[in-house]
Amino acid sequence: MKKAILLCSVMFMFCFAVKAQTNFANAQAKESVASSINAKPDVNAVKPIMYNLTVQNNTGGGTFQFQLVPQFSGGTNASFNFTTSQTISVVGGVYSVYLRGPGSTYRFAYQICATFGSITGQYATFNNVNICSDNGVISVN
Predict the structure, then answer these.
(1) Are 69 and 113 in contact (CB under 8 A)?
(2) How far is CA 92 from CA 6, 11, 69, 99, in A?
(3) Confidence bin at 17 (pLDDT 50/70/90)
(4) pLDDT averaged over the chain?
């Protein structure tokens, strides 16, 4: 009889210990999930820097095509027709710029970050244009 009581006591203690470990593990798992759900955004994360870029039509008429293609991941892709000046917001970085006129010969130019370039013709391609400050201008004359 003593052996039966001892055996029951040992079994009870074993069941109690296993149940306590299971509850503790479940509590840890719930705490881990709760902490990952309540995670705050990293204030030190790198955020893209945006700059204003003006596209100008100084011809007095005509519709021109503009295309901006980033040479890096996460840049601004832009493509639109314009007849009047427009200002767009662009992620800073290096781009290719494409311009096309409605058929005549035009002077296409850019001036951004103390760099500049110009091409005369029906279209223009500017490669490695670094947009690194506000007030950059791309124009057609």
Answers:
(1) no
(2) 77, 69, 12, 20
(3) very low
(4) 83
Task: Give the pLDDT score at 5.
Answer: 57
The helix/strand/coil state of 134 is coil
Using an 8 Å Cβ cutoff, are 109 and 118 in contact? yes
3-state secondary structure at position 117:
strand
As a whole number of angstroms, the longest Cα–Cα distance in the chain is 111
Residue from 75, 21, 31 nearest 51 by CA: 75
pTM of the model: 0.68
Determine the Cα–Cα distance for residues 94 and 103; give it in Å rounded to an integer: 28
Give, rounded to a whole angstrom, the gap between the first and last alpha carbons of the chain. Answer: 108
Given a cut of 60, is residue 10 above it in pLDDT? no
Mean pLDDT of 24-46: 61
- Only one residue has tokens 């001892």, namely 6
Q: What SS3 state is found at 141?
A: coil
